[in-house]
Amino acid sequence: MDSDPFDLVNIIAEWLRNLLLSWNLSADLIDVILTFIGAAVVATMVFMVFIFQIWFERKAAARFQDRIGPNRVGPWGLFQPIADALKMITKEDTMPRNADKVIYNLAPILAVFSVLMMWAVIPFTKNWIGTDLNIGVLYIAAAGSFGILAILMAGWSSNNKYSLLGAFRGVAQLISYEIPLFLSLLVPVFLARSMGVNDIVKAQDGMWFILFVPLAFVIYLISSLAEVGRSPFDLLEAESEIVAGYHVEYSGMKFGLFQAGEWLHAFTFGALAAILFFGGWQGPFVDQYPSLGLVYFLAKTMIFYFITIWSRLTFPRVRIDQIMSLNWKFLVPLSLLMLMGIPIVDYFFKASPWRWAALLAFNLVLGLLALEYARRGVKRGRRPRVKFEPRPVAVPPKDDEAAA
Amino acid sequence: MTPIQVLFLISSALVLVGALMVVTRRNLVHAAFYLVLTLFGVAVLFVLLDAGFLAAVQVVVYIGAIAILLIIGVMVTRNVTGAEVKTVNKNFWLAIVIALMVFSSIFLALNQWSQFNAPPAAASTEVLADTVINLGVAFVDANQFFIPFIVVSILLLGALIGAIVIAWPRKASEE
């Protein structure tokens, strides 16, 4: 790692440390200062991703809908997000008169904070990681729980019945889908024998976990889509039922922060998919040049971010009761069975070279059985069609009525 | 003063102020959000004690569950806020006396412990990295905490099934 000439982050950090040491600061204080600088740099970089996301998502959505998309500001409309951001910042910042002011203003900040917190443990390359916690996956779960709190704060403090209903519905959806999400996160943790995010990536040297446990990845993908609250699971927003959901009273940059939180959440879950199932920064030549891992990591992340956009623009949205029954009657039991089965299969094939094949076979069999079960359930649950005679819409008045 | 001490003072202040606000606010939702602040301060204290696992569990379990507490609080309480919301009842003084007694007994007991004022022994990083592994091993080792762990798991399973049974629609009474 010390022979890599492109390891800019650690070179700069070392230079800063020596600079501060030459100013006769204590080693403890330098650690604190460098940690703060590192946190600010990571958070700002991730927040900058949002600006790119605006352009990417608008352009991708346009192509899906057979349009061209932003093309006026800059080459290929690349400067469009800057115009969008300026519009967002200069918009009037309104607040309902009876809103709970402190909580109302705190909620959008917390929404972004919960996403940015996750990036503290995400390894960009082998050596570029905010802090290599040995409980990394649990930490990500903990950071996510602040996002739910932000939604509830926004919904309650707006003093609006629609936003409160939207927040209740959003919280119900999010905490329901946290269960299959975290259960599927436990599978890579089990295979890597570590909760540290970087250890999970290192354990995928040579073979990605997607080849062992595709079922866990599918469950992760579905529940992460629901966790982000994007179509087909964008029940947080339902114009005909609860207006715009929990953020109906927010305007200007405060709404922008909620949007940033949601979009960065999608990006972060893409990064997590890349790390947990597709080997993160692993790729050819990373042993010689660890910084090359950044390219692999970002490429994999973008692929999964694109999949979120793809599903958002392709699938029709579902109803809230369908979302809930998909989760509680299908995904939760399935992920529990998977989490029970994988260690048992792994125990019997621990030393065998066919460990991956056994795990893969178990995953495929369980997945097919679950699909068959779901197909039968759908058949059984299909509602009988109501039969009625066709009747004319406008009935001509009877003669005696017309006479009277 | 080292940065760790500053962090300790800030997080302890968060815990104390938050806890005081929880019991004095007339607004139920504000009280719940102050509880979040308090529990977050406790999580920071766990981190300062090198118990990262406990800190993360604290945030997942308590702060995650506060959202549910809030929803239940808003839905089942008649007055979420207002002057008629009571924060004290007539057992107020008794509670203060008991709290003071508990605090003073803990304080006295800790004060008599010879190690209380000793500087903390610097734990080596290898030991710290293994705490999660040790915790996990302790739960499945028959000589350590296997039996209590299983008992608690069965208790939780019982509570889960009980909740389902209570929520189950009673077909007989409907007819």
How would you summarize the topology of this molecule?
The complex is a heterodimer of chains A (404) and B (175).
Chain A: H1 8-22, H2 27-64, H3 80-90, H4 101-118, H5 136-157, H6 161-192, H7 197-203, H8 214-228, H9 239-242, H10 252-277, H11 293-314, H12 320-348, H13 355-381, H14 399-403
Helix pairs in contact in A: 1-2, 2-3, 2-11, 3-10, 4-5, 4-10, 5-6, 6-7, 6-8, 6-12, 8-10, 8-12, 10-11, 12-13
Chain B: H1 3-24, H2 28-48, H3 52-76, H4 92-112, H5 125-129, H6 131-140, H7 146-167, H8 171-174
Helix pairs in contact in B: 1-2, 2-3
Provide structural commentary.
The complex is a heterodimer of chains A (404) and B (175). With 404 residues, chain A is an all-alpha fold. Chain A is built from 14 helices and no strands. In chain A, helix 12 runs antiparallel to helix 13. Chain B folds into two domains: 82 residues, NADH-ubiquinone/plastoquinone oxidoreductase chain 6, subunit NuoJ (Four Helix Bundle (Hemerythrin (Met), subunit A), Up-down Bundle); 51 residues, no CATH class. The termini of chain B are far apart. By secondary structure, chain B is an all-alpha fold. Classes of the chains: A mainly alpha (404), B mainly alpha (175). Chains A and B meet through helix 2, helix 5 and helix 6 of A and helix 2 and helix 3 of B.
Task: Tell me the distance between the termini of chain A.
Answer: 98 Å
Q: Write down the secondary-structure element order of chain B.
A: HHHHHHHH
Q: Give the number of DSSP strands of chain A.
A: 0
**Coarse structural class of chain A:** mainly alpha
Radius of gyration of chain A: 25 Å
Form type of chain B: globular
Shape verdict of chain A: globular
Going by helix content, strand content and strand pairing, the class of chain B is: mainly alpha
Radius of gyration of chain B: 21 Å
Name of the CATH first level of the largest domain in chain B: Mainly Alpha
